[in-house]
Amino acid sequence: MLAALPCRAADFTTEQWSAIGQIYAKTLAHPFLKGLSDGTLPRECFQFYLIQDSLYLRAFAQALNLLAAKAPREDWSLTLAQHSIDTLKEERRMHQVVLASYGVTPAMAAAAEMAPTNAAYTNHLLAAVQRLTFSEGLSAMLPCYWIYWEVGKQLVRQGSRNKDYQRWIDNYAGEEYATTVRQVLAMMNESASQASPDQRREALRLFVRSARYEYLFWDMAWRREQWQP
Ligand SMILES: Cc1ncc(CO)c(N)n1
């Protein structure tokens, strides 16, 4: 029976990744990532991305804290709360170093408004962790971790001619980031194994949606998306 196949409990993350195969392939082929890799990405696009991403990371860290509060295990709460702190400290510091070299002060970045895609994506994450079960919320958050890791590993093979772009790539291709992502993957598999089939189905749907938003986030930066009117 076909209906019995999707959303099985064992190795849920394998199933999640296979559900976004096409989305991930399109992501790697996107001109933003191609440009990051070959160094031809226009400076204004990267700057737009960094400003939007610093706004994104604040919401992401908030979502992690909400998820930490819902975790059924104390060690998971601790891990997620730690990731929230790391997100705010490490990633934002890196962004600020790079942004400063682009002449953007932290105040300028903080005063910027979220572009439509960014607002939609962060609202999707915050709604999922707030309204749904731990497992479903975690599934919505997972593409943020996982896709960046995969992209980092892929892009580091080629390297970039632009040193700012290279620094960005190195951050996500590094061992420290890998450890972080592996923690969340293990948590996802364990948590999904205890969820109901309906919850797993919903978790998968949220995962796919977040993967689509990840794609759209690059596209947003590439287009330097603005609110209309
Ligand atoms: C949009 C987005 N997704 C994921 C990450 C990885 O934390 C990030 N920095 N930005």
From TrEMBL:
GO terms for cellular component: cytosol. GO terms for biological process: thiamine biosynthetic process; thiamine diphosphate biosynthetic process. Its EC number is 3.5.99.2. CDD domains: TenA_C-like (cd19365). Gene3D superfamilies: Heme oxygenase-like. GO terms for molecular function: thiaminase activity. Residues 19-223 form the Thiaminase-2/PQQC domain. It catalyses: 4-amino-5-aminomethyl-2-methylpyrimidine + H2O = 4-amino-5-hydroxymethyl-2-methylpyrimidine + NH4(+); thiamine + H2O = 5-(2-hydroxyethyl)-4-methylthiazole + 4-amino-5-hydroxymethyl-2-methylpyrimidine + H(+). Signal peptide: none annotated. Keywords: Hydrolase, Thiamine biosynthesis. Pathway: Cofactor biosynthesis; thiamine diphosphate biosynthesis. InterPro entries: Haem_Oase-like_multi-hlx, Thiaminase-2/PQQC, Thiaminase_II, Thiamine_Salvage_TenA. Transmembrane segments: none annotated. It comes from the Bacteria. Catalyzes an amino-pyrimidine hydrolysis reaction at the C5' of the pyrimidine moiety of thiamine compounds, a reaction that is part of a thiamine salvage pathway. Belongs to the TenA family. This is Aminopyrimidine aminohydrolase. It comes from Paludibaculum fermentans.
